[in-house]
Design goal:
Subunit structure: Homodimer.
Largest sheet: 3 strands, parallel
Structural class: alpha/beta
Keywords: NAD, Oxidoreductase, Tricarboxylic acid cycle
Shape: globular
Distance between the termini: 35 Å
GO molecular function: L-malate dehydrogenase (NAD+) activity
Family: Belongs to the LDH/MDH superfamily. MDH type 1 family.
Strand content: 15-25%
Order of helices and strands: EHEHEHEHEHEEHHHEEEH
Radius of gyration: 19 Å
Number of domains: 2
Number of strands: 10
CATH architecture of the largest domain: Alpha-Beta Complex
Pfam families: Ldh_1_C (PF02866), Ldh_1_N (PF00056)
Number of helices: 9
Helix content: 40-55%
CATH class of the largest domain: Alpha Beta
Length: 296
């Protein structure tokens, strides 16, 4: 975000250590002015006047952990940060990266509703890393130039709720079902692949930083009035019956989400996968709502 030309003021917040990170990144020769804020007492000052807030806070995954294992700790962190956003920058676009996204976004929505400042068009769960992975893996398999590849990824942001639509990928390639199944599985298990490769010493941080910056840039371009800015995101939606949140392609504009796209025609394998992921997504959404309401 420091090198993004649309950023004029960059506020960094964490519990500890932020002034040092801010000093380090401030030496990059781009126009954004950087301030570092550490500790809960400085959170309000960090958020005041922000147009875009990116929340990647939380515990990283460790070997053997599912995103759901992170729920209680990260849900509390997101709850407290969202309350501060609702108080100090209620009109900001919010990008939620903190896992489990399938639950933390509904938590954020409930908190903001309780505060009377909820705008469904300004709350987005960042699923961009799933899209980035699907594009990379598809390009590797087909030999297509990765810069030319697009793969729709719908659903949610955990395990089988991540549904890459390789039948709609471009440029199109005919692939056997077992190859598509393997690509789908790898996309769904991308986070686990990194956790295991790091042997317990971290999770996906560099690729997530790239994906987060990519999505945030799209939000900024939309806020600045650039036409036809589209990305995939996990948002309040009625695209799938029975689900109040779902990830699909959204159009971004000066007020946040300016439109939500349908996901197109699925083949039989993809439809079966979508049918299987709906109950899990529904459960994750309900869990988030229950937490926000103090029932968990």
């Amino acid at each position: 975000m420091k090198i993004n030309p649309a950023v004029t003021q960059l506020s960094l917040y964490d519990i500890v250590g932020t002034p040092g990170v801010a000093a380090d990144i401030s030496h990059i020769n781009s126009k954004a002015k950087v301030q570092g804020f550490a500790g809960p007492e400085s959170l309000g000052e960090a958020l005041k006047g922000c147009h875009l807030v990116i929340i990647p806070a939380g515990l990283p995954r460790k070997p053997g952990m599912t995103r759901d294992d992170l729920f209680k700790a990260n849900a509390s962190i997101v709850r407290d940060l969202i309350k501060a956003c609702g108080e100090h920058c209620p009109k900001a676009v919010l990008n939620i990266i903190s896992n489990p996204v399938n639950s933390t976004v509904p938590i954020a929505a409930e908190i903001l509703k309780d505060m009377g400042v909820y705008d469904k068009n300004k709350l987005m769960g960042v699923t961009t890393l799933d899209v980035v992975r699907a594009r990379t893996f598809y390009a590797e398999k087909t030999g297509a130039p990765v810069a030319d590849v697009d793969v729709p990824v719908i659903g949610g942001h955990a395990g089988q709720t991540i549904l890459p639509l390789f039948s709609q990928a471009s440029p199109g390639h005919s692939m056997p079902e077992d190859v598509i199944a393997a690509l789908t599985q790898r996309t769904q298990d991308g986070g686990t692949e990194v956790v295991q490769a790091k042997a317990g010493k971290g999770s996906a941080t560099l690729s997530m930083a790239y994906a987060g910056a990519l999505f945030a840039d799209a939000c900024l371009r939309g806020l600045n009035g650039e036409p036809n800015v589209k990305e995939y995101a996990y948002v309040q939606s009625n695209v799938v019956s029975g689900l109040s949140f779902f990830s699909t392609k959204v159009k971004l504009g000066p007020e946040g989400i300016a439109g939500i796209s349908e996901y197109g025609t699925l083949n039989s394998v993809e439809q079966k996968a979508l049918d299987a992921c709906v109950p899990e997504l529904k459960s994750s959404i309900e869990k988030g709502v229950a937490f926000a309401q103090g029932k968990v």
